[in-house]
Specification:
Immunoglobulin-like, mainly beta, 2 helices, five-stranded antiparallel β-sheet
Length: 556
């Protein structure tokens, strides 16, 4: 019977009868395999982060009759098969993944034959043996004043690159090694987490990277303190003085002058932190509840509480080179810092205390001011003698892009703004033929007008106080202007000018109108002199407890 069927098939094919198939009707149709491997194991032997290598192994199905081999994939989920690593024939139960293979979340093994692949993939989560990337520079300050509870912003620096991280999970714990209470999570790219008021205090916070639904076994932890205010101490009322210190002697410091007691307390940073502030401090600023100061030669930006306790120290670099922070100003939740050797302005977020962006400006920028929705930067060019800078960079505060450069006299250093948006610039000149000169930039036209000679200035309640202490000039001048009417209010806003031989910094209390001027003679600690609003000397020769007092701020 079988022979007759074969003969018939031969005749049909030979004579090509119409509408007749030559297929052997007795042959079974072949389907893609339904089986899948089990017991996958993989140990990464590549020690580089985000790279893997090593042997993937498994247990084959008992019956491999319908299997030709196994395809191996590296995937971000258990269904995607777009990144094939290779294949092995049936009977094989391992595959060698070469070192240096870019890491992903899952390894898949899929059986196949001539018809296609199995719909059933066996998968295993990849563990990076070098240690999953972890966050760094964690920071948290408790803002909940109740005992046993915390709240506030937890910040950190993300791994770079983030690779296949899909998010970050935040825990609190009673120890530094084990997960405790899950507080929440954020997606990749985020580096902050808001801990709500009333969260139960535990002494450790964790940030753990996450790939898909899989959390890393590596933990970044931070020991925290419960900030308790049982008997609140009144905030200090007085003035902070930043003493620059003698160059290259590492003796910058911060002092505090108490308005109630009339006492000067020196070295509050060293007392609060058990270490020195650094070398050559430049400017101090109070914004919100925090104090910010630049320490130029030590390449530091320090963030302090009102007691002088260090909250964060930032040591910015461009590549491996220090950028030497210099001037500092704040507005709308941001602090802007000039980088003297970085020729840039950095943007510091006051909530996260992270540098968000750097904006390139002119050469060797010094002081900054904010007005008209813009940041104005004095570009001194000071280290390029005799080729000094002569521009003010104007940065749009919204886009953080430089929109123009305004030309002024050479070597601009100090810069302030009034209530109508006009900008005041002191250019130090060349310390020879070109004198220290005060100029005004019109807010509407950007036209520059020379006003007078000046070396130091402060602007309070639209009154501009200037000191002209040009090297080699026989007399020091103290002038006061009404910036709205552009009138000279006083040719000498202090009565007894003889008490000051080397005025170095000036500040005016906007509430009382009192005038504070520091005097810094070489080799001696600076002295503070206090004048009434009418210019009469109230108190003088107050030792600031530090050298070259350069910047003052009021604490109310």
């Amino acid at each position: 019977m079988k022979m007759k069927k074969l003969v018939y098939a031969f005749l049909v094919c030979a004579f090509a009868l119409p509408f007749t198939s030559c297929k052997d009707d007795d042959k079974d149709e072949v389907f893609a395999p339904a089986e899948k491997v089990e017991n996958l194991t993989f140990n990464d032997t590549d020690m580089d982060p985000l790279k893997i290598g090593g042997t993937l192994s498994w247990t084959n199905p008992t019956n491999e009759d319908n299997i030709s081999g196994y395809n191996i994939y590296l995937s971000e989920n258990v269904t995607d098969r777009s990144a094939k690593l290779g294949a092995v024939s049936k009977g094989k139960n391992s595959f060698d993944i070469p070192a240096g293979t870019a890491m992903n979340t899952y390894l898949l093994v899929v059986a196949y034959n001539a018809t296609g692949e199995s719909a059933n993939a066996a998968s295993i989560t990849v563990k990076d043996n070098s240690g999953d990337p972890i966050v760094t520079e964690m920071f948290f300050a408790d803002e909940d004043k109740a005992k046993g509870f915390i709240s506030g912003t937890l910040t950190w620096t993300n791994p770079s690159p983030e690779g296949y991280i899909t998010g970050y999970v935040i825990y609190s714990s009673d120890n530094s090694t084990e997960k405790g209470t899950k507080l929440g999570e954020v997606e990749a790219g985020k580096s902050t987490f808001e801990i709500p008021e009333g969260t139960v205090y535990q002494p450790y916070l964790f940030v753990i990277t996450k790939k898909g639904e899989v959390e890393s076994e590596n933990i970044a932890s931070l020991a925290i303190e419960d900030y308790i205010v049982e008997n609140p101490v009144p905030l200090p009322y007085g003035m902070y003085l930043l003493n620059g210190g003698n160059w290259n002697e590492n003796n910058a410091s911060i002092s505090f002058y108490d308005f109630n007691t009339g006492e000067m307390t020196g070295h509050i940073y060293q007392t609060a932190n058990g270490s020195g502030l650094g070398d050559s401090a430049e400017q101090i600023l109070m914004y919100g509840s925090k104090i910010y100061a630049t320490v130029t030669t030590s390449n530091r930006i320090v963030v302090l509480d009102r007691e002088g306790k260090l909250i964060k120290s930032i040591e910015p670099k461009e590549g491996e080179e220090p950028v030497n922070p210099r001037g500092i100003v704040a507005d709308n939740g941001k602090v802007y810092i000039s980088y003297f050797y970085g020729h840039a302005v950095a943007v510091l977020d006051t909530a996260t205390l992270q540098i968000e962006k750097q904006v390139k400006v002119g050469r060797y920028p010094e002081k900054l001011t904010v007005a008209n929705g813009k940041i104005y930067v004095a570009n001194s060019g000071g280290n390029d003698y005799p080729n000094y800078g002569k521009t003010v960079s104007v940065i749009d505060a919204g886009t953080l892009e430089v929109e123009k450069e305004i030309e002024v006299l050479i070597n601009p250093v100090s810069i302030l703004s009034d209530s109508q948006g006009d900008i005041y610039v002191i250019s130090m000149g060349d310390y020879g033929d070109v004198k220290n000169t005060l100029q005004r930039i019109d807010a509407k036209t950007n036209d520059v007008t020379i006003i007078d000679n000046a070396s130091k200035m402060t602007l309070v309640n639209d009154e501009l106080y200037t000191i002209y202490a040009q090297w080699g000039e026989p007399e020091i001048k103290y002038r006061k202007y009404n910036v709205l009417t552009e009138e000279v209010l006083s040719e000498s806003f202090i009565e007894d000018t003889s008490v000051l031989s080397s005025p170095n910094a000036i500040a005016v209390d906007e509430q009382s109108g009192k005038i504070f001027i520091t005097n810094s003679d070489w080799g001696s600690t600076s002295s503070l002199y206090i004048f009434a609003a009418d210019g009469k000397l109230e108190k003088g020769d107050i030792d600031t407890k530090g050298y070259e007092a350069k910047s003052m701020i009021f604490a109310y």
